[in-house]
Amino acid sequence: MQQQRWTHYRHSADDTKSLSHNAVWDVQEDSNHWIWVATFGGGLNRFDPRNGEFTHFRFDAEDNSSLSNDFVWTIYEDRKGRLWVGTNGGLNLFDRSTQTFTRYLPGQEIKSLFEDNAGTLWAGTYYGGVFKLDEKRNKFQLTRHQPGNPNSLATDTVNGMLEDPDGTLWVVGDGGGMSRIDGATGAVKRFQNDPKNSASISNNHPMNITRIQSGDFLLGNYTGGMNRFDPRTETFTRYLPDADNPHAISDDTVFAITEDDEGHIWLGTWRGGLNRYDIDSDRFTAYRHDPNDPSSIGDDYVQTLLVDAQQRLWVGTASAGLHRFFPELERFERYVHDPANPKSISHNHVYSLLEREDGKLWVGTEAGGLNLFDPVSGTFEHFMDSQNHLQTAILGILSDERDQLWLSTRNGLLRYNPVTNFAQRYDEGDGVQSREFIAGSQLKGRDGLLYFGGVGGLNFFQPKQVENNQFVPPVVITQLSVLHSQRQREILLETEDSITLNYDDQPFAIEFSALNFTRSELNRYRYKLEGLDSSWLSDEYHHRVVYHQINPGTYKFKVRGANNDGVWNAIPAYLNITIRPPWWLSAWAYLAYSLIAAILVLLYWRWRHRTLLAERERDVAQRSEQTKQEFLAKMSHEIRTPLSGMLGMSELLERTSLDFSQKHYVKSQISAGNSLLKIINDILEFSKIEANKLELMQKPFNLRRLLVDLVSLFEIETERRNIQLELSYPDDVPQNFLGDPVRLRQVLSNLVGNAVKFTEEGGVWIEVRCSRVGDSFADLNLEIKDSGIGIEKQKLQDVFGHFYQVDNNVQHSYGGTGLGLSISRQLIELMDGSMMLTSQYGVGTTASIELSLPLVEESETVKGEKLSIDSYRSRARVLIVEDNDINALALMHMLVDFGCNVEIVGDGLQAVQYLEINTVDLVFMDRHMPKMDGIEAVKRIRALPKLEYLPIVALTASVSLQDKAECLNAGMNEYLLKPLLREKTLRVLNKYCHHLQVREMVLSEDS
C-alpha cells in the first residue's frame, strides 16, 4: 500500500499567517484555485497553496463592510463566481476587488447554501427557515423618500425630472418641492417653499420641470403658477394669474411646459388653455376655448405638449383629443374621437406624446390605450396586445435603443414591441415603485437611462439590462385528489406516471407545478386530457384542474408550464389515467344486458306478431266497415232518389181535386214513403254511431214548442186509433235550452211513435218535469207513458239491442226495424244523459229520459217568421239542374205553385251554358250527374262574371260527409238531402229569394 502523506495546518499564536482558529466547519476551492476555510470563531480564511499562508477576514464592529460574524458555518461560490459566506451573524457576499463584504439576512444563523438550476440562491438557517435570494426580481433600480435621511428624495410622489449634462438629476414631486441629486456623490439638496422668502418656490407641488435655452429652469406648479429658477443664484421668480394684468398667466396650475427652436415657450394649463410666454417682454398670451370658434382650442384643460422635429406644436387635451397649433394663424386643428371612424383617435383624453424618427407620433390616451398618429394622412392606428395590457391609460412613453416602447400606466410599467405586438408588464414584484405612475413623469437620460416617476418613488434603469427570466421550468405532476364526498383521498404522483381510478372516484383533481421559484405566483400553465380535449386549455396561474364525469377508458393528461416571464417548457409532463367502468358497464353487466336484450327481442317479436295479426284483423274490419258504409251510402242514394220523386209527386197529387178515397190512398202512399225514409235514416244514424262519426250540434231551441209540434205530428194517427195523446209541460219548467234539437226530436219521435204504435186503447202521455234549476243549467226528466201491450220483464233489457223485436208475432203485427230504441239510447248518452225503460206486460210501458241542458234566453230561440205554405208567392227565377226527370218535375211543380219561373237542365255542362246567357235568382244543383257533375259545374259557374254570389243549393241523395264537404268547398251555399218536399223547398226559397216575395208573410213563432 502506497504511503499517504498529510500536511497539518493549525493555529499558532505566534504566526499571523497561520490558520486563525482550529475549529474548521467548511473548506471550499473557488474558480481561481484559492482555498477558503470557514472557522468557528476565527472568521474566514483564504489559503494560498503556493506559500502555505492564510489571509484572515474577521468581524470588525467599526467596519460595516467587514465579515458580519467570526463564527462561519459554510462557504459557497455561485455560477457567477461570487463567494457567499454563511455565519452566525447572517449572510455575506465577498467583493474580491475591494476585499470587502456586503451583508444580508442580519441576525440569522446561515447553516447551508445552495444554488438551484435557475440560479436562485437558497440559504438554510438554524430555526429561522429557508431564505431565497432571487436577483431576477430586482430588474429596476429605485430611489424614494427615506424619513430621516436628508440625502433621499423629499417625497415619494415624483411628478417630473430633468438631467444635466454632468449627470446631475433634478426631481420635482408633490409635497416635496424640487430636489437636486449630485450625479457623482448622490448628495441631495432640496428646494422648498419658504413663506418668508419670496425668492423661494411658490409652493411644494411642482408638476413638471424644463430647462430653456437661457439655462434657467421653468417649473409648472399645481395652484402655484409657473416658477422660473436661476441655477446660478438658486432663486425662483413666480408667475401667477392676475385679473388686473391681461398679460399674466391664465391659470395657476401648469401641467406642461416646452420650448421650440425659436425660443417660444409654451405652457399647458389645467383651466386656462394654451399660453405662450415671451421671455423678453415677460408677457403671456393665452389661447382659450371659444365654443363659437371651431378653430380655437377644443378644451381649456391641457395635459401635455410636444414640439416635433419640424417645430410643429402638438397639444394633448383632457377631453378634446389632439390638436396642432399654427402660431402664425393663431388657430388649432383638432383630431377627436369619432366612433364611426376606426382611424380616428381612440380616446379624447391625451396623456402622453412621443415622436418617432419617421415623424409619426405615439399618442397615449385614457381608456383607448396606445395610438400611432400619421400627421401626413391625419389618421390614427390603434394598438391592442393579446393580453389587453395596452387597454389602459398610457401616462408616459419612452423608447429605447431597440425601438421598444416603455409605457407607464396605472397598472405597472409596460415594455412593448410594436413589431411583435407583445407587451410585458412589470409591477412591484419586479422592483417597480408601485403600479401607479404619474402622467408626464418620464425622462430619457443622456446615456440611455430611462426614468419613470410614480406615487412610490422614482425608477431608473438601462433597458438592455432588464433581462427576462430565461430559465425553462421543469413541470411535475404532484398529486391527484379524489373529491367524492365518501371516497376522498390524496395520491402523491411525484414518481408515478400512471394511475388507475374506479368510475366512482370522480370528480378528481390533478395538481401540478412549474419548478420556477422566481415570482412563482406568475407561473402559467396549459394542459389537456388526451381522449377528452382536442386542444390545449389555458388556466393561466392556477395549478389545479378538476374533472367531472369522465367516461371509462384510457387517457393521458399533459401539462406545460411557463415561468414568471412567459418562457414555456416545450416538453410537457404527463400522467396516464385509466378509469375503470362502473359495475353497470362491466363484462358481467354486458352479458346480463345481452340476455335481457335477447329476452326483450323475443318478447318484442311475439308482441309484434300479435300486433300484426291484430292490425290485419283491424284492417279487415275497417275494410268491412268501409264497405258497409259505402254500401249504405249507395243504397241510401239509390233509394232516396226514386223516393224523392214519389213523395214529391204525392204531395203535388194531394193538392189536386180528389175524392175521399183518392185522398186516403195518397195519404197512405205519403205515410208509407215517410216510413221508408225513417227506416233509411235510422239505419244511417246507427251506422254513424257505430263508426263514431256522429257529431251533435249546439243551437238554441224551445223544448215546449218542439214537443207541441211532435204531438201535432201524431194527431192523425191517434185520432185514427181513437187513443189519447196528451202533453204535460208545467209553467215552472224552463223552455229555452242549448242543444241538438234535431237529435232530441228524433229520440222523442221514436219513443212517442213506439208508444202510439203499440197502444190499442187508452192513451199516450208525455210529461216534463224539472228536478233542479241552476244559474246556467237545468236537470230535466221527460217521461213517455202508454197503456199499450207492455214488455215482459225478462226481455226488458234486450229491447235496446240492435235490430231487436220482442217476438215475431209482434213484429208482424206492428212492424219496425228494431233500431229505434237502440239509436235513441245512444243519442241520449251522447248528450251526457240517460234513458230507462220500465214496463208491465199487458199494462203499459214508461220511457224516462234524464238530461242536463244549458239554459238560454228566450230571444235566442225565436227565429222570427213562420211562412204560410198556402199563401207564399215569389217572382224568383229558378234553375233546376237534375238528371232524374221525376225529381226535376216534382221540384219544378212545387216551385211553380209558389209562383216561380222555373227552368230545368239535365247536367252540369248545360247549367254552365245556360247561365252564361241567362240570369236566375236561385239554382238547385244535383251532386251526381253525367257529362259534368255538380262540383265541377259550381266551380265553373263561380268563375263566370257576376255569378260569384249566385245562391246555389246542393240537392242530393248522398249522405256522405265527404260529399257535403266537397259541395260546400266548391262554392255551394247549402247542402240538402232528398227528398225535397214543400216545406223544405219553401224555406230555401225564402232564405235566398225573400226579396222577391209578392205576398205578405204571416208572422208567428218558428218551430
Furnish the topology, listing elements before pairings.
Blueprint: E1 24-29, E2 35-39, E3 44-48, E4 53-57, E5 72-77, E6 83-87, E7 90-95, E8 100-104, E9 110-115, E10 121-125, E11 130-133, E12 141-143, E13 158-163, E14 169-173, E15 177-181, E16 188-191, E17 206-211, E18 217-221, E19 226-230, E20 235-239, E21 254-259, E22 265-269, E23 274-278, E24 283-287, E25 302-307, E26 313-317, E27 322-326, E28 331-335, E29 350-355, E30 361-365, E31 370-374, E32 379-383, E33 396-399, E34 405-409, E35 412-417, E36 422-426, E37 437-444, E38 450-454, E39 457-461, E40 475-482, E41 489-492, E42 498-501, E43 508-514, E44 524-530, E45 537-540, E46 544-547, E47 553-562, E48 573-579, H1 587-654, H2 660-690, E49 699-702, H3 703-713, H4 715-721, E50 724-728, E51 736-739, H5 741-757, E52 763-773, E53 777-786, H6 808-814, H7 820-830, E54 834-840, E55 844-854, E56 877-881, H8 885-897, E57 901-905, H9 908-917, E58 922-926, H10 934-943, E59 952-956, H11 961-970, E60 974-977, H12 982-993
Parallel strand pairs: 42-48, 50-52, 56-57, 56-58, 58-59, 59-60
Antiparallel strand pairs: 1-2, 2-3, 3-4, 5-6, 6-7, 7-8, 9-10, 10-11, 12-39, 13-14, 14-15, 15-16, 17-18, 18-19, 19-20, 21-22, 22-23, 23-24, 25-26, 26-27, 27-28, 29-30, 30-31, 31-32, 33-34, 34-35, 35-36, 37-38, 38-39, 40-41, 40-43, 43-46, 44-45, 44-47, 47-48, 49-51, 52-53, 53-55, 54-55
Helix pairs in contact: 1-2, 1-8, 2-7, 3-5, 5-7, 9-10
